[in-house]
Amino acid sequence: MAAGGVVMANRSAIGEAAPLDAPEQRQLDVIRRWGTVGALLLAVGSLGSGAAPVFSPLPGTPVLGLFPRMPSASMAVAWTGIFLIVSAWLWLGRFARPGRPRLMTRSQLDRTLLMWITPLVFVLPMFSRDVYSYLAQSQIAANGQDPYELGPATALGVDHPLTTNVPNIWRETPAPYGPLFLAAGRVISMVTGDSVLPGVFLHRLLVLLGLAMIVWALPRLARRFGVPPVSALWLGAANPLVLFHLVVGVHNEGLAIGLMLVGLELALRRMPTTPGAPMTRDELLWIVLGTTMITMGAAVKIPAALALGFLGVMIARRWGGRFPDLLRAALLLLVISGVVMVGTCVGTGLGFGWVQTLNTAGTVKSWMSPPTAMGFTGGGLGLLLGLGNHTESMIVLMRLVTQGVSVVIAATLLWKAFRGRIKAVNGLGAGLGAVLVLGPVLQPWYVLWAALPLATAVLARRFRVFATTASAVIAVILPPTGSAFDGRAYIVPQAVTGALIAFAVCVFVARKQVFPLIRKDPLPGSA
């Protein structure tokens, strides 16, 4: 009852927020235009600094062909756009801070998000070349071959137009993605064939479908857990990491996370707050529908499956919170998700080979992954002490240990959520964060698996400041190109220096509009 009273009080507080006053609305207009200019600059910069296909039509195109010949200048333009978007997002957060007496409306935030996203829909891929792997793996499936057995070089040939764009490290590896995603990609490949840019555009539309699901689910889940909807949307859907790595980077996390969040909302739609009440047919129907959506998210990328555990906890608590209730809920979700997953694997014709390729990404050994970094450190110490080079063994050992730790963390969070010590959706966000951070590979966009669920349920100032700071820092430190610079490392400092100068000039020119925003707590949650 106490927890329910807190939620009701939070919901009441949400309803009491007044709309922005006239000066704040003028500031909101400045923020919108500031971010839109940044998105336009990022789009222009992508012409020379994006992860363009190997056989790009740009170099021979009048005017546009100049940008690929000026990589430093193009990257400086792109980075200036990044600085503008991130600063606009930080300033926008002032009008979405939980507990503020006046908040922007949902329509104001939606229009702002639309203005920032529209220019990014048509840019070249940036930050990563993963979308080219999607295209090649989808073409393998479209050819009737098994993408879980063959890599692009073997199945399509080294000189195939789609293979040439795949990074060398992935040309011989099978697909690590679920059958639902490759089935969707197979349809795209049937439409576009070997045409790279149309294929990229259709894959981006698939990600935008996932983003639309996120935008639909976030405010509804937030209201359910006592967080202002615009606060969840600002930290979630408007997050620069979403704009840069889902929309621009075309990562299928957008579709997987969207399905997961929609599934949670649908499953909870008819669930009463009174424990022990008999389950109605209507409630069971929504649980089945929600579980189906979450399972489909897992059939895109497997981390979404963790949401089934925390959904089971919520169902068990609704049934009375006893251990037998937890077992019943687990059995129910296991049957539903099992039927859906088997149906997806068999129905797509791709089978179950994806289960064996889930660790494909582990072939990359990056310092960004904590267990891999610990393995490198242990191997280096062994060399230093004259014990021999055992780096590979240390990496394998550290990965096994940290994966075991992540399982323990996830199980502990599930138990705490079952006992009512934490919100289940908070446990989901923290659990996904632990599983991915302690996994064999860590990419910047993996942060969104944790950030988006937590945005719907956490009001704590400390968390929101940390999430805001982490998102902003990660967004600005990653080079916008998907290239390794081919030894021309000087391009990055040149581009960053030029972008910082350009950003400073923008602030100086617009100082009368910008300085009031800077003076009034630009970091959300700092009040």
List the defining traits of the structure above.
527 residues, mainly alpha, 21 helices, 64% helix, 0% strand, globular, disordered N terminus
Give the helix/strand layout:
Layout: H1 2-16, H2 22-49, H3 71-92, H4 106-117, H5 130-142, H6 152-156, H7 179-192, H8 196-224, H9 229-235, H10 240-248, H11 253-268, H12 281-298, H13 306-319, H14 323-347, H15 370-384, H16 391-418, H17 424-437, H18 447-455, H19 461-477, H20 491-509, H21 511-519
InterPro entries: MptA/B-like (IPR049829)
Subcellular location: Membrane
Membrane topology: Multi-pass membrane protein
In short:
With 527 residues, the protein is mainly alpha-helical. The protein is built from 21 helices and no strands.
Describe the structure.
This protein is mainly alpha-helical. It has a domain at 365-440. The protein is 64% helix and 0% strand. The chain is built from 21 helices and no strands. The chain has helices spanning 2-16, 22-49, 71-92, 106-117, 130-142, 152-156, 179-192, 196-224, 229-235, 240-248, 253-268, 281-298, 306-319, 323-347, 370-384, 391-418, 424-437, 447-455, 461-477, 491-509, 511-519. α8 (196-224) packs parallel to α11 and α16 (391-418) runs antiparallel to α17. The protein is globular. Residues 1-15 have low confidence and may be disordered. This is Alpha-1,6-mannosyltransferase. Pfam families: MptA_B_family (PF26314). The chain crosses the membrane at residues 34-55, 75-92, 113-128, 201-221, 242-264, 284-317, 329-355, 367-388, 400-418, 430-451, 463-485, 491-510.
